[in-house]
Amino acid sequence: MFEFTMTPEQIALRDEARELAKSVSREYILDMDADKIKYPKEYLQECGKRNLIGLRVPKEYGGRGLGWEEDIIALEEICVNGYMFGCTYGVTGDVVPEAIVHFGTEEQKKKYLIPICKGEKFAAECLTEPRGGSDFFGATTVATRDGDDFILNGQKRFIVGGEGADFFLVYARTNPDVPAHMGMTCFMVEKEMGVKTEYVYGLMGCRGGGTARVVFDNVRVPKEAVIGEVDGATPIFYQMMIPERFGTAAMTIGAVRPALEIATDYSTKRKAFGRPINKFQGVSFKIADAVTKLDSSRSLMYVTAKAVDSGAHPDLCRRLVSEGKKFVTEQCWDVANLSMQVMGGIGYTDVYPVEKILRDMRLSMIWVGTNEIMSVITQHEWYKERKRELENTTKRNSEFDAINAFIEDEKIYE
């Protein structure tokens, strides 16, 4: 672990999160994977009792007022029990509060943040629709004015925590006469307003997190439920991409770490040809590769946390978050596969949890924006950054450090 980067307070927080993870019974974990538990309500209630939900929420609303560095330290430990523990924890404690903290009114902060941080109420973000998820501005859910209220109609799907949520952060089209980025609104919709949820998906992994279809059929939503401004969802969406994608990447490290630990221990015990298999480079080099992938992933996450916490340029943060989500989730997927390969056939069975971890990991490269979308954002922000560098002229331009650099006839661009 990276204890050398942590303050004593951060180490103490990490240990709190470790104790929380250890307190969960194996039966609870197995029941979630078997879909016997539809939503980990009891677990999240325990998180609230320990004041471990909403770490970045200001103290006056029940959180701890911490930064991203602390958040990702806790996320790694929380996810050791399984990726879906982190997904449900992150959605209700990181993602939804992000919108309320930055764009909510004082009344909304008190109404929603306090019970969320206490683990008394749970929240879900409704983004993906049946027609797609990555195309946010193609959303077809609509909210139509009716006096001071809005009438909400549409469907969202694959909503983590949807089955157990009391509050739903919903994006809907409110002005069809303008471009989508100018005509969408963010609402905090309460389940008792008439929201219907359906637990209908047979998931490959990441089960037990309340992943549901959420249906809005003429749901009446008061104007007080608008987060930010009417037709002003775009800046909220961009702000939300930090906890969605950064948190997703950081928690993946903790979710796959047990696979590496189990494979490492197995390789010291399992013998072939008269000696432990870790004495064969074909095995030990796979462990080395997996360790390197996790360490490099942590390094990128910690640097990104510092960038976001320090208020670095938004374009830089957007790039780091996006490339981090793609890089870390893909490295963690490799770690799961390497761990299974080290263990051979037994790793492909349910004698060890490596097969479950591998199933869970596959989601990380799809949800909250596919990794292909992360590449789109990364290259876009990098080109902007490079353009600013060229205009700034403070850096050396290495293009001319070649013998024939000034033969213009050879530099043909059209």
Poorly predicted ranges (pLDDT <50, ≥5 residues)? Answer: none
The run of helices and strands is: HHHHHHEEEEEEEEHEEHHHH
Number of domains: 3
Structural class: alpha+beta
Radius of gyration: 23 Å
The main β sheet shows up as: 4 strands, mixed
Distance between the termini: 51 Å
CATH topology of the largest domain: Butyryl-CoA Dehydrogenase, subunit A, domain 3
**Percent in strands:** 5-15%
Please provide the count of β strands. Answer: 10
- Principal-axis shape: globular
CATH architecture label of the largest domain: Up-down Bundle
Total DSSP helices: 11
Helix content: 40-55%
Order of strands, main sheet, comes to 1-4-5-8
The CATH class assignment of the largest domain is Mainly Alpha
CATH superfamily of the largest domain: Butyryl-CoA Dehydrogenase, subunit A, domain 3
Average the pLDDT over all residues and give the rounded result.
92
Oligomer: single chain
Describe this structure in words.
This protein is of the alpha+beta class. It folds into 3 domains: 3-122, Acyl-CoA dehydrogenase/oxidase, N-terminal domain (Butyryl-Coa Dehydrogenase, subunit A, domain 1, Orthogonal Bundle); 126-233, Butyryl-CoA Dehydrogenase, subunit A, domain 2 (Beta Barrel); 234-391, Butyryl-CoA Dehydrogenase, subunit A, domain 3 (Up-down Bundle). 50% of the residues lie in helices and 13% in strands. The chain has 11 helices and 10 strands. The chain has helices at residues 8-23, 26-33, 41-49, 68-78, 83-103, 106-117, 233-269, 281-309, 314-343, 354-364, 371-392, and strands at 123-126, 142-146, 149-159, 167-173, 184-190, 196-198, 212-222, 226-227, 271-272, 275-276. The strands form 3 sheets. The protein has a 4-stranded mixed beta sheet with strand order 1-4-5-8. The chain has a 4-stranded antiparallel beta sheet with strand order 2-3-7-6, with no helix packed on it. Helix 4 packs across helix 7 (233-269). The longest helix is centred in the middle third of the chain and has 37 residues, at 233-269. The model has no long low-confidence stretch (mean pLDDT 92).
